[in-house]
Amino acid sequence: MNNESTTRTGSVASTDDTSGTNLRGDRPVRRRRRRRRLVIALSLIAVVVLAAVIAVRSPSPVGHWESSAGHDRYLAAYDDALADLPAPDRVSDVRTEYGLVRVYRFNGSGPATDPLVLLPGRASASPVWADNLPSLLDVGDVYTIDLLGEPGRSIQERPITDDHDQAEWLDQTLDALPESQFHLVGLSIGGWTATNLALRVPDRINTLTLLDPVSVFDDMPLETIVRSLPASLPWLPKSWRDGFNSYTAGGAPVEDVPVADMIEAGMQHYSLKLPQPTRIRESQLAELTVPVLALLAGESVMLDATRAAETAERELPDARVEVYPNASHAISGEYPDEIAADIAEFLAER
Fold first, then answer.
1. Is 330:123 a contact under the CB 8 Å cutoff?
2. For residue 140, what are the contacts with CB-CB under 8 A and spacing of at least 6?
3. Domains of the chain and CATH, by start
4. SS3 for 255?
5. What are the average pLDDT values for consecutive 10-residue runs of the chain, which has 350 residues?
6. Is 327 helix (H, G, I), strand (E, B) or coil?
7. How far apart are CA 53 and CA 49, in angstroms?
8. What residues have CB less than 8 Å from 59, skipping those under 6 apart?
C-alpha cells in the first residue's frame, strides 16, 4: 500500500487499550455485548422505519415532486442558491436510460488536464458547491452534477433499484461528456456514489476525492439515524428539518441561507425513490484501482473520523487520508480553500 495519513492539527489515534487483562471482565464484556446487540437492533429498526416512511409517501416508482406548488417553491430556492455560483459556461441535460441528468460546466484556469466532476450530498444539488467553485476553478475545469433521483434539476424517469443502477446512470452521464477521463469529487452521499462507480466502472476515473463520505469507511451513527426520522416527514414544521440540517453542520444556523433553504424545500416537497446505499465493504475498498484522497470531518455526525481514517489507511491500495479535526459534515463549505489546495497537491503527486 502507498498510503499517507495526516491530520490538520492533531493525529488520528486509536483509543483502544489492550495493554492489560481485566481478570473480572466477564460481566463488563457481557454488558458491552448486550449494548452492541441493542444498538444494532435499534439501528435496523430506525432504517426500516425511515424506509417505510419514504415508501408510503407515494406509490410512484421514481422520485418526483409531490405538488406543482412545492416544485415551484424549490425551483425558486434553487435559483437563489445558484446565483451564488459563477455563471456556467455550458448547461446540459444528459439523456441516460434512467432519466435526464443536469450538468453544469465551468471553464477553469488551473493546470489539471482532466476536469473535476463534483457530486453533491443527499437532498442537495449543484448550488451546494458555491463556496468551492472559485478555488476549484484554479485547479482545472469543473463539472457539477445534480444527482439523479434526488431533489434538483435532474429528472428521474426509470426506477433505480440497486447499486448497479446507481453506477450505470452516472457512467452514462460521463460517457456523454466530451472528455474521456475525470477526477471525481464526492460529498457525503456523493462520495458513496463516486466510490460505487469506481468499484464497478473505473475506466473513466483518474482519481477519487471523498469529502466525509457516507457508508464508505464507517457506518452512520445511531443518533444521526434517529434524528433524521422527523426530518423525513414533510408535514412536520420547517423548524424540524432546519434543526436536522443545523445538526449535520455542527450547529451552524441555517435559517435564511439560500442553499439551506433549497435543501429544506427539497426535503419537504420531493418524494425520494432510491434504494438505501449498500455500505462499502472493506474487501471492496482493497480492490479500488484508482488513487483516493479522503478528507474526513473530525466533528462529523455521519461517521467516526478516527475509525473511518483507520479503515481508509488500512484498506485502500493508494490513498492519502486527512482529518480536518474542527470540521463538521458541512466540510465543503467550511474549508473550501484548504480542500482545493489538498486536491491540487494530490493531483500533482499523481
1. no
2. 108, 110, 111, 112, 113, 114, 115, 116, 183, 347
3. 2-8+70-222+273-349 (3.40.50.1820)
4. coil
5. 53 36 42 50 44 55 95 96 97 98 97 97 93 98 98 98 98 98 97 98 98 94 65 58 58 70 89 93 96 96 93 97 95 96 95
6. coil
7. 6
8. none
- Strands annotated E in 52-159: 64-65, 90-96, 99-106, 116-119, 142-145, 155-156
For residues 66 and 267, give the distance between their C-alpha atoms in angstroms, rounded to a whole number: 11
Tell me whether residue 64 is exposed, middle or buried, using C-beta atoms within 10 angstroms of its C-beta: 0 to 12, 13 to 18, 19 or more: middle
Q: Which residue has the cell 482529518?
A: 323
Alpha helices in the chain (DSSP H): 26-56, 68-82, 133-136, 163-175, 189-200, 222-231, 238-248, 258-269, 282-285, 305-315, 331-334, 336-349
Show Cβ contacts of residue 210 under 8 Å, excluding neighbours closer than 6 positions.
186, 191, 194, 195, 216, 292, 293, 294, 295
Per-residue pLDDT of 274-322, as tens digits, reads 998 999 999 999 999 999 999 999 998 889 999 999 999 999 999 999 9
Taking only the tens place, the pLDDT of each residue in 156-207 is 999 999 999 999 999 999 999 999 999 999 999 999 999 999 999 999 999 9
CB 245 within 8 A of CB 260: yes
d(CA 140, CA 142) in angstroms, rounded, equals 6
Question: pTM of the prediction?
Answer: 0.80
Instruction: Return d(Cα 255, Cα 204) in angstroms, integer.
Output: 39
